[in-house]
Amino acid sequence: MNTFNRLNTLDVTTDMPVQANPLINDVDNNGLDRLSVSAQKYMHNLDGQNSVCLDPDTSVDEATLVLNKTHVASMFVAQDGALLGIISQARLGSRHILKEAQLRGCQRRELVATDVMLPLKTLKQVSLTELRTASAGDVLVTMEAHGLDYLLVTAPETGQICGYFDLVELIKAGGRSVNQLRPAEHFNDIVVSLLHHSEL
């Protein structure tokens, strides 16, 4: 049975630029157990020059169209080169959108990317240095422990974002369920959770 270790993470700071991943050719694709392979195998590499981002005022319908046309599951929201958050097809297709419209007192079609994205400040980051020896399973248990949908990766020399992990893809790779509940850090987190889950 494999044992995976949690990685050290940091809170994400604002105004984080993007750069290409310097370890992109260092990935080891061998391994029988899909979560025992190098974490780099499941990392989405970003290229600062060619990264496609959504504008903050992109409507949810336009965002869905862009994601479908570009065949990607997630995309960053950015303004003037500064990353603000991340948005996904799964989030756009979930009931979260209708709940958000209800909370804002508007129609679904009136929502824009910044209304429904996961803000960068709610995510965690891990250094690319740690990923040199980390397995995909290490990343999965780290994300599970923090209740993260995404984990950003930063280059140690510059602190710039060079990639990210998507929890859904790691769950599919591992073939097991995980606890996706985000631990509450403040009382306000509990209040917000209750407001977003009326069934509770």
TrEMBL record:
Domain CBS span(s) in chain numbering: 50-90
Lineage of the species this protein comes from: Bacteria, Pseudomonadati, Pseudomonadota, Gammaproteobacteria, Alteromonadales
UniProt superkingdom: Bacteria
Species whose genome carries this gene: Pseudoalteromonas rubra
InterPro entries: CBS_dom, CBS_dom_sf
Annotated SUPFAM superfamilies: CBS-domain pair (SSF54631)
Listed name of the protein: CBS domain-containing protein
